[in-house]
Every structure is written in C-alpha cells, then in structure tokens.
C-alpha cells in the first residue's frame, strides 16, 4: 500500500482540525505506524502469491513467453521453427539468421545396399536349335569358353574364342546344335555331327551361371540317345575338367598316335590344335574294328 505526498498532507490537515495541535504529533506517529503495518502486510501477501504461482513475476512471465528450442531446427524472427535448409522463412518471408557456430547437419553414413543373391536359373528343357539362333549359340560358346583363357596355349586363344564366321562354317559342315533353355534364354549348347562311320560330339558349353547343375550331362545323354555309330569327342589337353566330365560318362582317352589320326581324319583343325588336343571314345568305338 502506497500513500502519495498530497494524500499525506491532506491527512495531516484533517488530524489538525479534528484533534488540535496538541495531539497532532501523537496521532501522526500512530498514523505512521498504521501505514507501515499496512505496507508490511501487503508485501507478505505479494510474496505468498509468488510462492504459489511462479509465473506471477515479470521475469518468469518473460521466460515463459519464449518458445522452447527444438534441437536441429532454427527459429525465425516470427517465432516459427524451420529446418536448416531454409534460407528464407516460408511464413513471413524474412531471411533466416543461422548461427555461425552451428555446423551443418552431417549426412548419414554411407551404407551400401546388401548384394542381391543371384536369382535361381529356371530350366525349361532341351530342344533342337535352328541356324537362325546362331547369335544365341555363339553367345553361350564365347561366354563359357572364357574358362580356357590362360589354360590353353596362348597362341591357340583368340578373342572372341569363336567368331560368327567359324560357327557358320560348322553349321554348313553338318554340325547340328541342341540347347538347354531356361526362362532367361539359352543356358547350354551341344553339337552333334554325323559322319560316315562315326558321330562326333562338338562344341559342348554351358553358361557359367548355370554350370554344376547337371545341364551338360542331360545334353550329352539327349544327344547320345538313338545313335548307332561310335561316338568320339575332342577337347583341349589342358582342359582337365572337360576330360573328367567325359570320363565320368563312359568315355576313355585314346592313345596319342590314335588321337592324331582321328583328329586329322574327322576334324578340320590346324596342326597346332592337333598337338594340343585329345580325343575320347565311347565303348562302341573301342570295341569296333575301326579302333587301332
């Protein structure tokens, strides 16, 4: 409770009129004590209210009016919170003042996507291939023949391993191809060449991603079915996996002298290829009078 100077003068005049000058000092002292007690009581009431309501003080109200900070966001002058990427506030149009000591948010660490597992090769079956499918046949041959790189003599390797012209010459010479087909296309090929007294197995290849699934064995069994004449197979001497494949299916290596004779009789290849190749024969050949 506060009393202005004018109010105090007015009270003194009233006291002077009512009580006279003799008792004026006494009543003035009483009035002073009364005013002091009223002021103390007023302060106690204010303190009690502040204890019960912390926001009642001006400082607390000012602090409460300030919006809370949100980590990672910047506050515009219009009190809106924005992402650091904004240069201008989309609400008020002001330029966003970015703190200099706030580093740009670090990009998330690079995490490569896990490598997808190779899709299983879906197989449909075997059928005869036409000459119109020569490009597909050639693709399988050249893809699978990469296994010969750095295995056969360097002077016998060429890129591509089989040119299209060579394949067309083989087709013209009577080599007929069968293929193992899957939903994604041709998976393997194998040729058969019928000669006067023998049958040759030619150009047997399976795409790398389809190998070790028995496709070569099924192609070989299909091409041997119904053949009456002895069967011969030629391959590189360094291709031990191919030799093992044919030995597993009943073929046997012939002697070196016999190999040279057979390659020069039934194949049209260079002298160098004759030197670096082998021939395997089935039981029918080994039991026939043609074998020496």
Quick overview of this protein structure:
Helices cover 39% and strands 17% of the residues. It has 292 residues and is an alpha+beta fold.
Could you give the order of strands across the largest sheet?
A: 3-4-5-6-7-9-8
The rounded distance between the terminal residues' Cα atoms is 137 Å
How big a fraction of the residues is strand? 15-25%
Output the CATH topology of the largest domain.
Answer: Aminopeptidase
Number of strands: 9
Can you describe what's shown?
The protein is of the alpha+beta class and 292 residues long. It folds into three domains: 5-56; 72-99; 123-286, Aminopeptidase. The protein has nine helices and nine strands.
Question: How are the secondary structure elements laid out?
Answer:
Blueprint: H1 5-52, H2 58-65, E1 74-75, E2 81-82, E3 123-128, H3 134-144, H4 164-172, E4 175-182, E5 185-194, E6 199-206, H5 215-224, E7 231-236, H6 240-248, E8 252-253, H7 256-266, H8 271-275, E9 277-281, H9 283-286
Labels describing this entry:
about 15% strand, alpha+beta, single chain, seven-stranded mixed sheet, two-stranded antiparallel sheet, 3 domains, about 290 residues, Aminopeptidase
């Amino acid at each position: 409770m506060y009393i202005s100077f004018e109010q105090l003068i007015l009270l003194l005049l009233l006291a002077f009129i009512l009580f006279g000058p003799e008792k004026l000092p006494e009543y003035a002292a009483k009035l002073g004590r009364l005013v002091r007690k009223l002021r103390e009581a007023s302060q106690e009431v204010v303190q009690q209210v502040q204890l019960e309501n912390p926001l009642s003080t001006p400082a607390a109200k000012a602090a409460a009016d300030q919006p809370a900070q949100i980590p990672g966001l910047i506050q515009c002058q219009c009190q809106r919170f924005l992402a650091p990427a904004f240069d201008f506030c989309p609400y008020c149009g002001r330029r966003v003042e970015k703190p200099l000591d706030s580093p740009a948010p670090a990009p998330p660490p690079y995490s490569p996507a896990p490598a997808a597992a190779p899709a299983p090769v879906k197989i449909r079956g075997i059928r005869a291939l036409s000459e119109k499918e020569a490009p597909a046949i050639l693709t399988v041959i050249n893809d699978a023949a990469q296994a010969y790189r750095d295995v056969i003599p360097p002077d016998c390797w060429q890129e591509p391993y089989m040119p299209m012209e060579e394949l067309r010459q083989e087709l013209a010479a009577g080599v007929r191809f069968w293929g193992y087909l899957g939903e994604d296309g041709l998976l393997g090929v194998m040729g058969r060449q019928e000669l006067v007294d023998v049958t040759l197995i030619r150009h047997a290849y399976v795409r790398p991603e389809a190998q070790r699934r028995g496709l070569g064995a099924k192609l070989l069994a299909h091409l041997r079915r119904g053949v009456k004449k002895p069967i011969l197979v030629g391959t590189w001497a360094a291709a031990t996996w191919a030799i093992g494949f044919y030995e597993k299916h009943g073929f046997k290596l012939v002697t070196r002298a016999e190999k040279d004779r057979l390659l020069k009789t039934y194949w049209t290849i260079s002298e160098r290829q004759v030197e670096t190749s082998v021939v395997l024969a089935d039981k029918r050949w080994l039991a026939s009078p043609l074998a020496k």
